[in-house]
Amino acid sequence: MPLTEADIPTIIAGMTLAEKAGQMVQVDVSTATPAEVGEFGLGSVIKTVPDGKLGTTDAWRNLFDSYQREALATRTGIPMLAGIDAVHGHAYFDGPAVILPHNIGIGATRNPALARELARITACELAATGIRWTFAPTIAVARNIRWGRTYEAFGEDVELQVMFASPLVQGLQGTDLAAPDAVGATAKHFIAEGATEDGIDRGDALITEEELRAMHLPGFIDAIDLGVPAVMASFSSVNGERVHGSRALLTDLLKTELGFDGVVLTDWEGIAMGGLTMKEGLEAGIDMFMLVESWREGLPEIIRLVEEGEVPMARIDDAVTRILRMKLRLGLFERPFSSGVCADALGSEAHRAVARQAVRESLVLLKNEDNILPLSKDQSVIVVGTHADNVAYQSGGWTKKWQGAHEDLFGNPARPVEGATSIIDGIRKLIGADRVIDAGRDGIRDDADVAIIVVGEQPYAEGIGDRQAEELVLTPEQRALIRDYHDQGTQVITVLISGRPLLVNEELERSAAFVAAWLPGSEGDGIAEVLFGDHDFTGQLSFSWPREAAQIPINVGDTEYDPLFPYGFGLRYAP
Ligand code: BGC
After folding, report:
1. Domain check: are 324 and 379 in the same one?
2. What is the pLDDT of residues 84-132, one digit of tens each?
3. pTM
4. Distance 135 CA to ligand 1 centre (A)
5. End-to-end distance of the chain based on CA atoms, in angstroms?
6. Are residues 208 and 292 in the same domain?
7. I need a surface site. Which of 14, 74, 99, 312 has the fewest CB within 10 A?
8. In the predicted model, is pLDDT for residue 413 greater than 70?
9. Are 154 and 539 in contact (CB under 8 A)?
10. Helices 112-128 & 349-362, crossing angle to 10 degrees?
């Protein structure tokens, strides 16, 4: 007979305190061996660093299955659960997975049905590598574009949180969470992380309860209603209180009021990072600790707290109940090992076609003087700029590793994202290589009337991407490139790759057309398909575009609202 929810109390009654504490601990494959997962009965394993190239679905399956074998061989035989960050496709896979546009671009599509399809693809590619849990979607509402995680949000308003939280959860989880190709989602990061003062990552949101509930909570409610099995606490604080230590937020609001019956997970070493104790986390309502590096101290600390009467066993039993519930709902007790599902679909042309559609629909046309776009496929074009032939830059942070692929992974600097198409390659594919004049990162050529200049931000993640408002600009070299092409009389089409709006007034002036392309991911050819008119622009700004640094933060609904381009703006070819 398959286990059901009704069996959980019996399982828990048969567990020792150490076994319970083990379930509450999450480690990384780089910090705990399979044997240690067995020895300590650890509940979950994640993979966050490219610790040597595995590269194939089989190698990844073997890795996680080796942990699972040890978990199943313990006295309790409770399966472990493997999770990973897949915030824009299975982007940590070190093989040819499809990298999707980051959420800022998804927001710009205003297409929730497409978002659901994209999340299905992510789930399929994750399951192909033996992973049934992801720390996604990020359903933050980013209220200040200085924040380094702005691009992980769908936009600046709750409208987009509500539009996209549900389809992403539905897409990841499918119609049956126990199906081999279903992946448990994590609604993160709870809550108001995008509302911190000055957009400081892990900072403090000074916010009324009314604003918190109206602007930051609705997407979480939707995710919970859809049965999301996990919620990750935010590193940030609300009105001076660390969320990881907030009983009011994690227990009273999330668990009691909203009825969330799944697992509240810490962020990466979120207890220590927040200057909190394990006791404070437990009392606040944390169920599973992403301890990663400190698990050898954290695990005995949970045991000590209970043995010495500082934390009641009932709190531990509640946490373990939730963890077992999640594992049950994922069908792990029946099918603990990787299934091999979707192996052929990973990185497939079918998956790439949907991702390419998302790229096309995420593009926002900000300017199109004299209808210079769409370009004719019969003309030669110069293509130039730091981001024209760089699949790492166009994919942004959380690609292959935390801060992005840059150019240094696995000794293949030219192709850090296997299977990806750069923007210039996409243009070559569409109009023929002989019509494309490649001027490199910064070359000046004058043998065509039109130059497509692709520039923008370099990859970053989290607080590394926090900026002062004045810093939200292109580099001097990028600006000079646009200026020089303009000044020599070439028509400039600027394609901006960025995780947020930038202050680009002069570059807008000097460009005949200007496209905000966000962080499109691996399918760079989606850009050519719109520039050359195979498809129209349909994207709409998910963030207000500021006129000047002093305006930041600016959000739709502000009393004095005078952006350069308003939230929702986007030109089209069609009248
Ligand atoms: C991030 C989370 C992420 C976790 C695991 C943290 O630094 O805030 O979003 O899920 O790392 O990689």
Report:
1. no
2. 999 999 999 999 999 999 999 999 999 999 999 999 999 999 999 999 9
3. 0.98
4. 8
5. 62
6. yes
7. 14
8. no
9. no
10. 140
